[in-house]
Specification:
Blueprint (H helix, E strand, L loop, with lengths): L6 E5 L10 E13 L5 E7 L4 H6 L4 H7 L9 E5 L8 E9 L8 H14 L5 E5 L8 H15 L20 E5 L6 H25 L7 H14 L3 E5 L1 H7 L2 H7 L7 E7 L9 E6 L1 E5 L19 H16 L4 E11 L11 E3 L5 E3 L7 H15 L3 E6 L3 H7 L4 E5 L1 H14 L3 E3 L4 H5 L8 E2 L10 H10 L7 E6 L5 E2 L10 E2 L4 H14 L1
Parallel strand pairs: 1-7, 2-5, 2-6, 6-7, 10-12, 10-15, 11-12, 14-18, 15-19, 16-17
Antiparallel strand pairs: 2-3, 4-5, 8-9, 9-12, 13-14, 16-19, 20-21
């Protein structure tokens, strides 16, 4: 299932003369001098890019917007009928917050503004964005942010409704981004990149949002494999027989309770000429539905466990973007897929599982299944050879408790964790490094196996850290690694905001792509 797409192009026509359904301009909040009562006078300031629109309104546009309740707050969208003042019938002013001193708005501010505006203009077929774009070294980042925000803000999951929804407005079909020179090669390259990366994020959202009965491991593996082959990636899919023959005990254990058998999908991108010689491995958790197994979850909210494959979806889609962008580094993606179900064949608390790298794991909680499938995939990635390993998973509720629903937790090699944090900051997907304390590992000692799957006393203290400590057991000493716990950021259950729509967010596709490009450029 593919959601309606939004096309993106550049334009350098005067925004006031564009034949579009709506023109989007930026609006800053500004604190002026004191008013008559001695308080701050809140004045509005149009952002650069809105000059010709303001001139068409004879300088009264900010006054009119203020009468309509505009404040310039970030993400706020105020629509105004132009009544023929400019070619577009509607002007939409999107808030950018206070005007930054001596600089353009931050890329993330622009990304969220573009997303908010395009989302608010659903029902319009053709929309132009005339937002502030600097003409200095920051120009590429600003244009990239606006383009990504527009494409992601225009996303809406196709869904399964069988009756027409008269009140439901279709997403914007075409977005034009106003730039100084539409034929500029650098600007065109940024648009092409944004389409590849945002397309991968949208595909991730589609996979995450699909009903779990329609995306079980075999079908998910087939969908990823088909898309990867079309993109020119090498594809290997291990079915349940191949997993058993290969000794993937963790993946098999989690998947044995379901009638839909598990899979391990391997995707490989090889640059022409071998690239830089560095090798990057991406591993993503693909639990297509998580009941908790024998250690069953509460019913409340369980329906959101269709999103427990968000890590695999992000890795699979990121590989498609990488194939399109062609960085000079070898990248291999590993997607272990299983459905964690309670049945007469489910794995049990007390089981001892032999993992792919030979380690014995005592199972204490079948709801800690993600680390089991990931351990096998990470061990395989190290065996195949990697300089850097980035693993992504909706692993623990502890991540949400510790860092909330916007910030991922990252654990592993300290230098690589810092690199992930910097990449997240650059693309608007924040992550925060967390420790892997010795006392947490001590609490996971097993009386009968090499390690317990969770704390041996079922103590949930440091729950997020327990996941990272466990996964460290499956990374060889010569591989720099980072584990991203995206339990909160990968799925948005609240109302749409910025370029986030309800449901799957696509986090951290953009971080992964940025990291791969960084390794290609800097090693």
């Amino acid at each position: 299932m593919t959601s309606p797409s939004t096309t993106l192009s550049l334009v350098d026509t005067d925004p006031a003369e564009l034949a579009v359904d709506a023109i989007v301009i930026g609006l800053h909040s500004q604190t002026g001098e004191q008013d008559a009562a001695g308080g701050p006078a809140g004045a509005l300031l149009l952002a650069s890019g809105a000059e010709s629109i303001a001139a068409a309104f004879d300088g009264r546009l900010t006054e009119t917007l203020a009468l309509l309740g505009a404040t310039g707050a970030p993400g706020e969208v105020i629509k105004l009928a132009t009544l023929g003042t400019v070619t577009a019938p509607v002007v939409a002013a999107v808030g950018l917050g206070p005007e930054p001193t001596g600089a353009a708005p931050a890329p993330e501010t622009l990304r969220r503004a573009a997303g908010s505006a395009v989302r608010a203009l659903a029902g319009a077929r053709r929309v132009a964005l005339s937002l502030p774009l600097p003409d200095d070294a920051d120009a590429a980042d600003a244009l990239r942010a606006v383009a990504e925000g527009a494409l992601l803000g225009g996303y809406r999951f196709a869904g399964y409704k069988t009756r027409p929804q008269p009140a439901r407005r279709e997403p914007v079909a075409e977005v034009l981004v106003a730039v100084p020179e539409a034929g500029d090669a650098g600007a065109r390259a940024e648009i092409e990149r944004a389409q590849a990366v945002a397309g991968a994020v949208r595909l991730t959202r589609d996979w995450v949002n699909m009903a779990p009965n329609l995306l079980r491991p075999p079908g998910f593996a087939d969908a990823v494999a088909e898309a990867a082959r079309a993109a020119g990636l090498a594809v290997e899919v291990l079915d349940e027989a191949a997993l058993a023959a290969g000794g993937y005990g963790g993946i098999l254990a989690v998947g044995q309770g379901s009638e839909a058998p598990p899979r391990l999908v391997k995707l490989t991108y090889t640059p022409e000429g071998g690239g830089s010689g560095k090798r990057v491995a991406l591993v993503g958790k693909g639990i297509t539905f998580d009941t908790g197994g024998i250690s069953i979850k509460p019913a409340q909210g369980m329906w959101e466990m269709k999103s427990d494959m968000g890590g695999a979806a992000a890795v699979g889609a990121a590989m498609l973007a990488i194939a399109a962008l062609k960085p000079a580094v070898t990248v291999t993606g590993y997607l272990p897929m299983a459905e964690n179900m309670p049945s007469g064949t489910s794995y049990r608390p007390g089981d001892v599982i032999t993992m792919y790298n030979g380690k014995k794991v005592e199972v204490l909680n079948t709801d800690a299944e993600g680390r089991m499938v990931l351990g096998d995939a990470m061990a395989r990635a190290c065996e195949d050879g990697a300089d850097y390993l980035f693993e992504v998973s909706t692993l623990t509720g502890g991540q949400v408790v510790s860092l909330g629903k916007r910030i991922s937790g990252v654990m592993g090699t300290p230098e690589l964790c810092e690199r992930v944090r910097a990449a997240g900051d650059a693309v608007g997907e924040p992550a925060w490094p967390m420790p892997l304390p010795d006392e947490v590992r001590k609490g996971m000692e097993s009386d009968v196996a090499d390690i317990s799957q969770v704390n041996a006393g079922m103590d949930r203290a440091g729950h997020m850290l327990q996941g990272g400590v466990f996964l460290r057991e499956f990374v060889t000493d010569d591989v720099a690694w980072a584990h991203l716990d995206i339990a909160g950021p990968s799925y948005h259950s609240g109302e749409a905001t910025g370029y986030w729509t309800k449901g799957g967010t696509g986090v951290p596709v953009r971080t992964l792509v940025h990291l791969v490009e960084d390794v290609a450029a800097n090693g």
